[in-house]
Amino acid sequence: MDHQTKDEQICIEHFYQCRICKQWLSSDNFLEGMQVEPTSIGIKDGDIYRNVYHFTHDIPECGAQIELPVSKFEPFINEPISPEIIGGQSQCQMLCTNDADVRECSQDCYYAPFRRLFTLMQHNFETKQAD
């Protein structure tokens, strides 16, 4: 069996099935902003496995709201994930809880790589919309 590393391009074809229109979406649909708009992050301090990304299935015949655990996206993070959680401390920029602020988090925090991935997905969606 051939195992992929995090540095290799990963695409999971049947990543999520829309509960409304039943269309299968690949991981690339989410990561590259194809038919899926990232809308917000739901943060629950202390447990990354309870945190969620919110999306909208952005096709005219659907529009479903999608909620997926951020942990489902961990294979697509190509950087080390710090064990430190600085959320709520003075050095925290509070970006994970502010969806209107699209700046990339520069902190060395457990949540930061997930925020950076979310910011990248937002950028990719906006770029696709501009094309």
Care to describe what's here?
The chain is of the alpha+beta class. The protein has one domain. Helix content is 18%, strand content 17%. The protein is built from two helices and five strands; from the N terminus they run ββαβββα. It has helices spanning 27-31, 112-130, and strands spanning 16-17, 24-25, 36-42, 52-57, 65-69. The strands form two sheets. It has a three-stranded antiparallel β-sheet with strand order 3-4-5. The protein has a two-stranded antiparallel sheet with strand order 1-2. The longest helix is centred in the last third of the chain and has 19 residues, at 112-130. The termini are far apart. Mean pLDDT is 85; it is low at 1-8.
Order of helices and strands: EEHEEEH
Q: Which percent band covers the strand fraction?
A: 15-25%
> What portion of residues is helical?
10-25%
What summary fits the major beta sheet? 3 strands, antiparallel
- Helix/strand/pairing class, anyone? alpha+beta
Shape: globular
User: Strands of the biggest beta sheet: in what spatial order?
Assistant: 3-4-5
When the domains are counted, the total is 1
Mean pLDDT: 85
Quick one: how many beta strands? 5
Instruction: Give the uncertain stretches in residue-range form.
Output: 1-8
Alpha-carbon distance between the termini?
A: 39 Å
The value of Rg in angstroms is 15 Å
Tally of helical segments: 2
